C-alpha cells in the first residue's frame, strides 16, 4: 500500500485524477447542502401552511360558536308600547294647587289608574314565521295598599278606541302573572276560534289591552307577549315597569282647573265591580290554560324569559 501511494504521488496523471475527484467531492457537498436547505425550507413552508389551515378551521369553529350564542339571545318580536293614558292622576294632597303638568313631571309618587294599554308588535324575523299566544301576560312585580292622604285629577271624557286585537285582564292584589285573553270587542266573549296569531317576516299587529286593577292598591307591573319561534317558546316583556292604582277613599278632586278642588271619589270607581275581579281573574287564567298550541306551562319558571 505504501509503494502504491508513493507511485501515485510521483505519477502526474494519478495526482491530477485525485485532484479532480476532490473537486467533484467538494461540489457534491455543496449540492447536497443546497438540496438539504431546499428540503428544510419546503418542510417549514408545509408546516406553516398546515398551522395556518388549522387556525382557519379553529376560527370557523369559533365563529359558529359565536353565531350560536348570538342566536340564543335573539328575540323575534319588536314592540312599541304607547305611553300610558294618564287622563287621571292621584298624588299626595300637599301638591294641591300645583299645575297638573308640573305634578306629572316632578312628583314621583303620582300615579294614574291605567285602564287601557296600546301595544304595536312586529316580527323581527327575516324568513321564519313567528306565532303569538291569544293572551297577554300582566306580571305584577309589586303591590301595596294606597295611602289615604291623596288628591286627584280626572280628565275623563273617553272616546271609543280603534279596537283591532282586544285583550281584557283583571288583576287581583297578588304578585305574579295574570292573564288577559283575547275577547270579542263587541260582546266581550272569549275568542275560542283563535288559537294563535301568525306574523309573517316584518308583519305588524296592533294589540289593545283593557285592564282592570283591583281598587285600593298600587301596582307595579309589566306586560309580556308569549311567542313561539323556530319551535321554541319565550316571553318578550314589551313594556318597562309601570304603575297603576285606583284610590277608594274620598279625596279632593279637580277636573279642569289646577286650583279648583272639590271633595269626591275617583270617577273610575263607578265602573269597577271589585267583588267580581277575583272571579274574572280566575276565568281568564283558566281560558289561557285551556290552550293546546299555546299554554302558560310552556313558559312558566324561566329565569330569563326574554331569551330562547
TrEMBL record:
Region spans: Disordered: 279-308
The entry's keywords: Membrane, Transmembrane, Transmembrane helix
Compositional bias annotation for Basic and acidic residues: 299-308
Residue ranges crossing the lipid bilayer per the database entry: 12-31
Highest taxon listed in the record's lineage: Bacteria
Protein's name in the database: Uncharacterized protein
Amino acid at each position: 500500500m505504501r509503494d502504491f501511494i508513493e507511485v501515485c504521488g510521483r505519477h502526474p496523471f494519478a495526482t491530477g485524477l485525485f485532484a479532480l475527484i476532490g473537486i467533484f467531492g467538494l461540489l457534491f457537498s455543496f449540492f447536497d447542502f443546497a438540496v438539504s436547505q431546499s428540503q428544510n425550507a419546503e418542510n417549514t413552508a408545509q408546516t406553516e401552511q398546515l398551522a395556518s389551515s388549522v387556525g382557519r378551521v379553529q376560527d370557523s369553529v369559533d365563529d359558529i360558536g359565536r353565531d350560536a350564542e348570538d342566536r340564543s339571545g335573539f328575540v323575534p318580536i319588536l314592540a312599541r308600547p304607547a305611553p300610558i293614558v294618564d287622563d287621571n292622576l292621584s298624588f299626595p294632597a300637599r301638591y294641591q294647587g300645583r299645575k297638573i303638568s308640573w305634578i306629572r313631571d316632578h312628583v314621583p309618587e303620582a300615579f294614574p289608574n291605567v285602564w287601557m294599554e296600546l301595544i304595536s308588535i312586529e316580527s323581527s324575523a327575516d324568513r321564519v314565521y313567528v306565532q303569538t299566544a291569544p293572551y297577554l301576560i300582566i306580571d305584577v312585580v309589586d303591590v301595596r295598599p294606597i295611602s289615604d292622604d291623596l288628591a286627584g285629577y280626572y280628565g275623563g271624557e273617553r272616546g271609543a278606541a280603534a279596537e283591532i286585537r282586544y285583550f281584557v285582564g283583571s288583576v287581583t292584589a297578588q304578585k305574579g302573572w295574570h292573564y288577559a285573553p283575547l275577547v270579542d270587542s263587541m260582546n266581550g266573549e272569549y275568542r275560542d276560534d283563535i288559537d294563535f296569531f301568525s306574523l309573517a317576516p316584518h308583519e305588524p299587529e296592533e294589540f289593545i289591552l283593557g285592564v282592570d286593577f283591583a281598587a285600593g292598591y298600587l301596582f307595579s307591573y309589566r306586560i309580556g307577549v308569549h311567542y313561539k319561534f323556530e319551535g321554541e317558546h319565550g316571553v318578550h316583556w314589551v313594556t318597562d315597569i309601570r304603575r297603576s292604582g285606583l284610590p277608594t277613599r274620598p279625596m279632593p278632586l279637580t277636573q279642569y282647573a289646577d286650583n279648583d278642588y272639590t271633595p269626591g271619589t275617583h270617577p273610575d270607581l263607578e265602573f269597577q265591580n271589585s267583588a267580581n275581579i277575583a272571579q274574572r281573574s280566575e276565568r281568564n287564567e283558566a281560558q289561557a290554560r285551556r290552550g293546546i298550541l299555546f299554554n302558560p306551562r310552556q313558559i312558566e319558571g324561566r329565569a330569563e324569559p326574554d331569551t330562547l
